[in-house]
Write a structure and sequence with these properties.
It comes from Blastococcus tunisiensis. GO terms for molecular function: enoyl-CoA hydratase activity; long-chain (3S)-3-hydroxyacyl-CoA dehydrogenase (NAD+) activity; NAD+ binding. This is Short chain enoyl-CoA hydratase /3-hydroxyacyl-CoA dehydrogenase. The chain is of the alpha/beta class. It has 3 domains: 281 residues, Alpha-Beta Complex (2-enoyl-CoA Hydratase, Chain A, domain 1); 179 residues, Rossmann fold, CATH 3.40.50.720; 217 residues, N-(1-d-carboxylethyl)-l-norvaline Dehydrogenase, domain 2. 49% of the residues lie in helices and 11% in strands. The chain is built from 31 helices and 19 strands. The strands form 4 sheets. It has an 8-stranded mixed β-sheet, with helices on both faces. Strands 1-2-3-4-6-9 form a 6-stranded mixed β-sheet, with helices on both faces. Helix 1 runs parallel beside helix 3, helix 20 packs across helix 27 and helix 21 crosses helix 26. It is globular, with a radius of gyration of 28 Å. The two termini are 41 Å apart. It binds 1,4-dihydronicotinamide adenine dinucleotide (NAI).
């Protein structure tokens, strides 16, 4: 038997304090030990009910309770449906027994209570929460393709009402702060510190003889009414349509399951409601989408924290003083990222005045964080104080890391890097934020090419979590490991790729947007091109994306590749050239595929250039976008631009908008369901079909043919190939 994860302490007044404290981990999760401990605890509470006056539920960890056990959820397959259902039913019945003990139960929420954590807290009759900006409450399940299956849907809709629970908690997975939780009625009280927290919870218990949940009281009316009430009955039919609109038609099952579970749970008694919720939960858990999303967004992140793409045998590194060259949009964002985690920054531009502009941009960013309650004024002042704007390279003295973000020009980058090299510490890391220029070529401009690495941030830097690290011909393992650690230091996610044209992200992103342009040329109406992408799960359509990055960027990458000898017959290129020739370079010019002023709308001239026809079936259009990216990624693996399947998956989701529901671009290949069994063989067969119909760019590369393996094993097969 494992040790109990719940400590029991009773006092002279008969108040039992239950402290969640899993001895095997730094956080409490819903693992087997928790279920066993909770079972024993409830048995004991029931057995000793005569002497128990009430219960206070709290935690000894930094967080209250971290939530579900993703390690076991990800292994749930359709064959395990009954097993999963039994487990979730058990968890719920325990919480149900707790709330119907007949004695008052108060949660003292001392830290974040997310997912399963909030579900436990909701089973108490009274909730006090520590009023600290680090404490967050919420149901992030939807972001992993799941719903809260431990009673979270049932209790939150009964407590807050259908509309509030759906919009504020369930459908988008927001994490809310204590003040907001109080305002919504999710908690009853807040406390300034831990002592007050426990004292308030205990005082409430002592002030109440018995307690029951509001929904167990006779005549309880759900706030906002039942689904059959006139107010809801008139608005309810619009919910699914609104959801489809919000999801832009993307096939994410969880929001629809949440909506159905919430509505149906209100039409039955509480115990039946738990059964309804459980059924929807299990459907999602055993489905492929949640597996994909958990794997990509959770486990691969853990892997990145463990750092498997980081070279072994190099000591952990932390930047102390960073020199950022170029105080434009990217440079300012990079300075903000470092200063926020307490690193001193020298922000260098052509003049102090130019550098000051970059610092002013950082001031705007932290100002917004303060006004949204995400940063204290004190911290914002400290962040700004750490940034020293300058026009003088001599001020780079003492920097151990240089990040270059000047204009995209090789000669200029050579100049600023070699100048920085003279003034910074003799072994400083020399990183470039270039999005297109080969790192090996940039390293030729300095005397220490082994210390040069690509550190490709995405725009806007403060929002985008990914950083693509690029290894040039001469980049040393030590430099790569330092760069990796520095990216982790600012809380971002690194992937590692080898130097090549467009690296991984720009190259594969290029295939997406060019495919969108090709579809337009073949007669798909502009809004159909966009809809094909949105309905496949992309966050934006390719024509919108092209306008946002400006049409000249992909052309520039193609031109450079052509100069290096690549042949280029992609039909999308001609479309981009036609628009650029018409002066329509994108959003920054106010006009591209769309007119952006006074509001976004398709440029009427497009139909004249590319008359619509119905030559491309809609399903083909959708799959061409997904396949274009997947085939190009496979080529990147074949060419060893990418060494890790995980880097491809996480990079495609976080950097270039590949739909998370597929779990990443190579997971899509691995799970593709065509006419045949899901797996690489089906993908290969369909890619061949697309190649025959639309062009050789879809022809699957040899690496996929060699490894036309059963679903789920591409990861292992490719790992074998690159070792
Ligand atoms: P930007 O035009 O906003 O900023 C460039 C800055 O460099 C300007 O402030 C300019 O005064 C400064 N500069 C020029 N010569 C200099 C010198 N000799 N010494 C110091 N500073 C000098 O450009 P942006 O968008 O910030 O891009 C910078 C780099 O980041 C480029 O290499 C670009 O390819 C790359 N990048 C851009 C992304 C984007 O979305 N804009 C995304 C990822 C990378």
């Amino acid at each position: 038997m494992s040790e109990s994860t719940i400590r029991w302490e009773s006092d002279a007044d008969g108040v039992v304090t239950l402290t969640l404290d899993d001895p095997s981990s730094s956080a409490n999760t819903m693992n087997d030990a928790y279920v066993a401990s909770m079972g024993e605890t409830i048995d004991r509470l029931e057995a000793e009910s005569e002497s128990v006056r009430g219960v206070v539920l709290t935690s000894a960890k930094n967080t209250f309770f971290a939530g579900g056990n993703l390690g076991s959820l990800i292994q749930a397959t359709p064959e395990k449906t009954d097993e999963v259902l039994a487990q979730v039913t058990l968890v719920k019945s325990q919480l149900r027994r707790l709330e119907t003990l007949g004695v008052p139960v108060a949660s003292a929420i001392n830290g974040a209570a997310l997912g399963g954590g909030l579900e436990i807290a909701l089973a108490a009759h009274h909730r006090v929460v520590l009023d600290d900006p680090k404490v967050k409450l919420g149901f992030p399940e939807v972001t992993l393709g799941l719903l809260p299956g431990g009673g979270g849907v049932v209790r939150s809709v009964r407590l807050l009402g259908l509309t509030t629970a759906l919009l504020e908690l369930l459908l988008q997975g927001q994490q809310i702060r204590p003040g907001k939780a109080l305002e919504l009625g999710l908690v009853h009280d807040t406390a300034a510190d831990r002592d007050e927290l426990l004292a308030k919870a205990r005082a409430w218990v002592l002030a109440n003889e018995t307690a029951q949940q509001p929904w167990d009281a006779k005549g309880y009316k759900v706030p906002g009414g039942a689904p059959s009430s006139p107010s809801l009955a008139s608005t309810l039919p619009a919910f699914p349509a609104n959801l489809t609109k919000q999801l832009k038609g993307a096939p994410y099952p969880a929001p629809y399951a949440i909506l159905s579970a919430a509505v149906e749970s209100l039409q039955v008694d509480v115990d039946t409601a738990f059964t309804v919720e459980g059924r929807y939960f299990v459907d999602l858990v055993v489905g492929q989408v949640s597996t994909n999303m958990i794997q990509a967004l959770w486990f691969d992140l853990n892997r990145i924290n463990g750092g498997s793409s980081r070279p072994d045998g190099v000591d952990a590194y932390a930047a102390r003083k960073v020199g950022v060259l170029g105080a434009g949009m990217m440079g300012a964002g990079i300075a903000h990222a470092f200063a926020t985690v307490g690193v001193d920054v020298v922000l260098k531009d052509v003049s102090t005045e130019a550098a000051e502009k970059g610092k002013a941009h950082v001031a705007d960013l932290v100002g917004k964080q303060v006004s949204r309650g995400r940063m204290s004024q004190e911290k914002a002042d400290a962040v700004l104080a750490r940034i020293r704007p300058t026009g003088d390279a001599a001020d780079l003295a003492g920097c151990d890391v240089i990040v270059e973000a000047v204009f995209e020009d090789t000669a200029l980058k050579h100049r600023v890097l070699s100048e920085a090299e003279v003034h910074a510490l003799p072994d400083a890391l020399l990183a470039s934020n270039t999005s297109t220029l080969p790192i090996t070529g940039l390293a030729e401009g300095v005397s220490r090419p082994a210390d040069v690495v690509g550190m490709h941030f995405f725009s806007p830097v403060d929002k985008m979590p990914l950083v693509e690290l690029i290894v040039g011909r001469d980049t040393s393992d030590a430099a790569l490991a330092r760069a990796y650690d520095v990216v982790r230091q600012i809380g971002k996610t690194p992937i590692v790729v080898q130097d090549s044209r467009g690296f991984f992200t720009s190259r594969v992103f290029g295939t997406l947007v060019l495919e969108g342009a090709a579809l337009l040329a073949e007669g798909l109406a502009p809004m159909s091109v966009e809809r094909a992408a949105l309905q496949a799960g992309f966050p934006a359509g390719p024509l919108t994306l092209l306008d946002e990055v400006t049409l000249t960027l992909p052309l520039k990458i193609r031109d450079e590749a052509a100069r290096a000898g690549a042949t280029d017959d992609h039909p999308g290129v001609a479309v981009l050239r036609a628009l650029v020739e018409a002066g329509r370079t994108g959003k920054s010019a106010g006009k591209g595929f769309f007119d952006w002023e006074p509001e976004k709308r398709v440029w009427p001239g497009l139909t004249g250039l590319f008359p619509s026809s119905d030559a491309v079936p809609f399903r083909d259009a959708q799959e061409r976008l997904l396949f274009a990216m997947a085939v190009e990624t496979a080529r990147c693996v074949e060419e060893r631009v990418l060494n890790s399947v995980e880097d491809a998956n996480i990079g495609s989701i976080m950097g270039i908008g590949f739909p998370p529901l597929y779990g990443g671009v190579l997971q899509y290949v691995d799970q593709y369901r065509g006419a045949a069994e899901p797996g690489v063989a089906s993908f290969v067969a369909r890619a061949d079909e697309l190649a025959d119909a639309y062009g050789e760019r879809f022809r699957p590369p040899a690496i996929l043919l060699e490894r036309a393996v059963p679903a789920g094993s591409l990861r292992a097969a490719l790992a074998g190939a690159s070792s």
